[in-house]
Amino acid sequence: MSDEEDLSAWGDALAEQAEAEADSDESASAEDPWGAALNEQAAAESDAQTSTLDELSASRGDSSEKVDLDVLLDIPVTLQLEIGRTKVSIRNLLSYTQGSVIEMDRLAGEPLDLLVNGTLIAHGEVVVINDKFGVRLTDVISPQDRIKKLK
Predict the structure, then answer these.
(1) Angle 3-31/33-60 helices, nearest 10 degrees?
(2) Where are the beta strands (DSSP E) in the chain?
(3) What is the pTM of this model?
(4) Rounded to an integer, what distance in angstroms lies between the CA atom of residue 132 and that of residue 89?
(5) In contact, 112 and 105? CB cutoff 8 Å
(6) Could you report the per-residue pLDDT of 52-63, keeping only the tens digit for each?
(7) Phi, psi (5° rounding) for residue 41?
(8) pLDDT digits over 96-133, tens only?
(9) CB-hemisphere CA count at 13 Å for 51?
């Protein structure tokens, strides 16, 4: 077997393996959509956490001090999902009864706002998997932009 044939055989084998892995991922997703969503979320969080930790390490400047992030990781925070806002008078508020419809400032299909302790962190969309609601994040606000909004 020549080197070209050898390389071609390796390429074919790798392509076959990639197809088999893709097929197994698709069948696993069809069987357990929550599992697939959680795996996707874990991968995204891992990437975000690694990049955030790298940014923190690089921005500290003084490497002689050690930051113990474990202390911060267990602090509870409040997550809120906001579908929209509206202003109403107290007269209208008191007139609401069961079945009343309140018009919001957003259109159907617009992304929700994810707020952490009142600060906008991301935008997302509602998903329903096995009769349970969830939120798929579509856009995460960068830490630099969040800090700019605080000032």
Answers:
(1) 110
(2) 79-82, 112-116, 119-129, 132-140
(3) 0.48
(4) 34
(5) no
(6) 555 655 555 555
(7) -65, -40
(8) 999 999 998 888 888 999 998 888 899 999 888 898 98
(9) 8
Task: Give the alpha-carbon dihedral of 52, 56, 59, 62, to 10 degrees.
Answer: -160
State both tokens at 46.
């891992």
Q: Decide: residue 140, CB within 10 A, 0-12 exposed, 13-18 middle, 19+ buried.
A: middle
The string of pLDDT tens digits covering residues 51-98 is: 555 565 555 555 555 667 778 888 899 999 998 889 999 999 999 999
Supply 132's token pair: 């349970």
- Single-letter amino acid, residue 135: V
Token pair in block for residue 97: 């009864």
- Backbone dihedral region of 133: left (phi > 0), alpha (psi from -120 to 50 degrees) or beta? beta
Q: Tell me the three state secondary structure of residue 79.
A: strand
What letter would DSSP give residue 1? -
